[in-house]
Every structure is written in structure tokens, then in C-alpha cells.
Amino acid sequence: MSTLAKEIPTTGSPTLAVRGTGRGPRGVAVLLGPPIAFLALVVVLWYIVSALLGKLSFLLPAPHRIFTEAFFDPKVAGDIGNALVQTVLVTLAGLVLAIVIGVVWAIAMSQAKAIERTLYPYAVILQCIPILALVPLIGFWFGQEFFARMIVSVLIALFPMVSNTLFGLQGVDKSQRELFKLQGASRWTILTKLQLPAAMPTIFAGMRISAGLALVGAIVGDFFFRRGTPGIGSLISNYTARLQGPELFAAILSAAFLGVAIFVVFGWLSKAAVGKWYESAS
Amino acid sequence: MQFGNGTVALSGVDLTVRPGEFVTVVGPSGCGKSTLLRIASGLETASAGTAEVSTSRIGYVFQDATLLPWRDVESNVELLAELNGQSKKERAEKAAAAIKLVGLSGFEKHLPKQLSGGMRMRTSLARSLTLDPELFLFDEPFGALDEITRERLNDELLRLFAEQQFGGLFITHSVSEAVYLSTRVVVMSGRPGRIVDVFEVPFEMPRDPDIRYTGEFAELVGKVSHALREGHS
Ligand SMILES: Nc1ncnc2c1ncn2[C@@H]1O[C@H](COP(=O)(O)OP(=O)(O)OP(=O)(O)O)[C@@H](O)[C@H]1O
Ligand SMILES: [Mg+2]
Predict the structure, then answer these.
(1) Model ipTM value
(2) Per-domain boundaries in chain A
(3) Which of A180, A193, A194, A277 to mutate to test the interface with B (most CBs of B within 10 A)?
(4) Ligand 1 atom 23: residue of nearest CA
(5) pLDDT tens across A41-92, in order?
(6) Close Cβ partners of A100 (under 8 Å, ≥ 6 residues apart)
(7) Does domain A63-281 have CATH number 1.10.3720.10?
(8) Quick check: B42 and B53 in contact, CB under 8 A?
(9) Which CATH class is domain B1-57+133-233?
(10) The pTM is what?
């Protein structure tokens, strides 16, 4: 027997070793360390360039000046705050409209191949034409205020809602659909009890993309339209025109913060809505 | 059965299932077994020939569990009754009974992703049971399960069959599963599927799990396997 058994070395380094390690404080440090170090590096470089610019430092004001001269100045902070509120309103209005139109559009297309063939080309065209080229016309038609800005927002945010919803509605498993058909379920029942719930994860993914785009739309509208309450885009273009460096940077940072906040909120909404059953909702 | 693209999947199949009969079909992959079930259930219409079904209470257990991932076990099991417009109370009662029958009590509030493959299959089985089916169609329901779970589900199925006396049409790749479960085994040839042999299974119901290890059982399994191999070539 033993002559047949191969000798198995039991010393030396293991071929496979699995050890559990929790994400302790060290894990968090590993996670957050590199990005923070990178940020520090950027700030240092920023100071250096800003100092080198000398008189031209309004092009890149030292980081602390963004706070001392803009965020901490009640007048500037007030302007930025009001502008943010206005931009958020336009973004939300545009987003809600885009969601409603997009979902209805996709549902219509999911009901019949003929409707899909008729309407899908327009969704693609909507995605292909540079909306910026249409913006002046939109101002021309709809005035230069809230409503026009909202329309720009809708146009930019619409496509991901249409395509994601359609993708979700059509992606329903064939045997699940047949399960419903065997019970003689109506189109409406199949839509409400099967297709829409199944499409929720992709609809929410679409919403997250559209929300970011709606914000872009709201800011773009500001650049073109001069009437109505100014949004953050109007402030940005005013500060640029007046060479107000610190104020300009403060406005840009606020817009960036708004974008991140929207992204986080919609990620969280998605998780709250479908995270329980959908494996990879993030 | 000829599909639009010219594929002929079934040819000259003549099959009857009566209440209290459990018929299994074995045959090589692609011969048209699923197609046969789809025709029997009305999901597909035969290009030639007829399918007569004398009941509307048809249970159909698909190859995969086809649960709705956003519904917990309880409301997945309630689904068919819900689609048939039964009252909340009625379907809750039915679901509770079916869940108990397949041994999933205590898991009512679990989501499909929290279940094992076998438990998902049992949920799917429970869902079909709420219909009180008179005709029960199974398309390789236990094909993806391990041997032990599979045998246990086979026993549960036999118990259900003894209790409810539905007509069963069961498709499987496993010859011993076919012999163990059924009152009749139908062997089909390769595509286009024809019936090449039919075996009556003499063992009485309810079946003792240990008959699987008897000589008679092995002999019948051998005969069916033989017919299957002949039909294939
Ligand atoms: N909708 C369809 N259109 C065209 N051909 C089809 C269609 N559905 C099935 N077929 C063909 O019919 C044949 C039988 O298919 P079926 O699914 O009934 O096989 P099966 O016996 O269930 O096989 P398996 O054991 O692998 O599940 C196959 O050759 C398949 O390609
Ligand atoms: Mg099949």
C-alpha cells in the first residue's frame, strides 16, 4: 500500500491559504487614505500655482480665499444659496417630468412592436441631436424663465429614462411571463404585477443618470436664459464675466456638491426601493 | 409539431393522462418534451393534431422556479390565486396550506434570494398547488438539484399525488426518477420525438422509498434505459 502512496510534502508555503480579516479601523484607513492623500497633494499644487500666478491669481485663487472671500461673505453666500435653491427646483421639476414622460413612453413602446418601431427612432434622435443647439429656440418659444429652463432639463434627461425603462420592461423572463399567461392575466395585470416591478432596478438606475443630466440641463439653461430667478449657472457666468475668482470657485464647488448630493440621494433611494430583493443595487 | 423555422419537434405522439395517473416522459434532449407540455398547457398550439384538456385547473411547474424575486415566499405562493381573482382571505388560507404541505413553514417571509435552490423549487411547487390542479405538468423540475434533495422532493410529490389524485405529466432526464414516480413511463426517440415504448410501472402507491434498491426496480430501470438508448440511435 504505502509503496503506492505518493509522498505529499507538508512543509513549505501553502498553495492556498484563506484567512478571514474584518474591515477594522485599518481597513477604513486603507479605503480613505489614498483619496485623502491625493486631495492633499492637489491642494498643495493649487497653492503653488496660485502663488506663482501672482497678480493673475484671480484665475486660480488660493483655496482658503474661496472660503474667506466667498462662502463666509454673507452677501455671496446668500446669492449662492438662493441660486442653488432655484437650480434644485428646476432640476427636480425637469427630472420629475422626464421620469413621467420617459416611463409612459417606454410603457407605450413595450405594449406593441408597432408602437416601438414608430416611437423608438425619435428617442434615438433625441439622444443624437445636440440639445445645446436647440436651447436658443426653446428660449424663443417658451420664454427665458423657469419653464424654459425646465424644458431644457427634460430634453437632456429624457433618454436614459426611456431606454432604461424599456430595457427593464422587455427584460422580463419568458417563463415568468408564461406563468401569468397561463392564468389568463390581462396586459394590464402583466404590466403592473410583473413588468413594472421587474423593471424597477433598471428604472432606478436610469433615474440616477437622468438626475445628474437634469442638473446639467438646469445649469445650461441658466447660461442661455437671462430672465427669471438666477440659478447657479447664471451666477457662474456673472462671476466669470466680472473676474471674481473666489466667488466663481465657490459657485462651481457648490454646483459640484449638488451633483454629488443628487447622485448619493438617488443611489440611496434605489437601495431603499429595490435593494432588499435586487442583488446588486448599489 | 412543426415550428415556423421548419424544425419538427414532435411527430405522431398519442398520449392520454387520466386522473390518478402519473405519466413520466423520458427522451433525449431536444426531442420535444417541453414542447409537448407547452401544447398540453395551451402555451403553444400544435401545427397538426389536437390536445384535449378537460380541466382549466392546470398546474405547470417550470424547469426553474420562476419566482418573483420581489415577493416573499408567502406572496409568491399566493400569486396564482391572486391572478384568478380570489379573495385575500381565501388565498392566504390556500397559501398557508400549500406552504405547510411542501415543508416551508417558518419561511413565509423569506425572499427568494434567501432560499436554497431546493426551497425555491418547493415554493414553486406550493404555488402550483394553490390551484388544486386536476392536471399537473412538470418540466424537469428537479433537474438542477442534488440527489438527496431530489429524492426528498420525489417523496413529497408522491405523497401529494396520493392525497390529491391529480393527473400528472412529468418530464425528466433521470430514468430512475421516472420509474420511481410514475404509474407509466413513456420513452421518446430523438427529434422529431416519437413514442418508442411505454412501460406500466407495477409498484403500488404509496411507494416505499426503499423500492429503489430492489431488483425489480433495477430491472425496470434497465429496460427503460435500454429502450431510451435504442430510440436514440
Ligand atoms: N419556438 C421555437 N421555434 C423553433 N424551434 C423551437 C422552438 N421551441 C423549441 N424548438 C425546437 O424544438 C425542438 C424541441 O424543443 P424542446 O424544448 O421541446 O426540447 P426538449 O425535449 O424539452 O429538450 P430538453 O430535454 O433539452 O429540455 C428543439 O430542437 C428546439 O430547437
Ligand atoms: Mg425541455
Answers:
(1) 0.86
(2) 2-58, 63-281
(3) A277
(4) B30
(5) 999 999 999 999 888 888 888 888 888 888 888 888 889 999 999 999 999 9
(6) none
(7) yes
(8) yes
(9) alpha beta
(10) 0.83
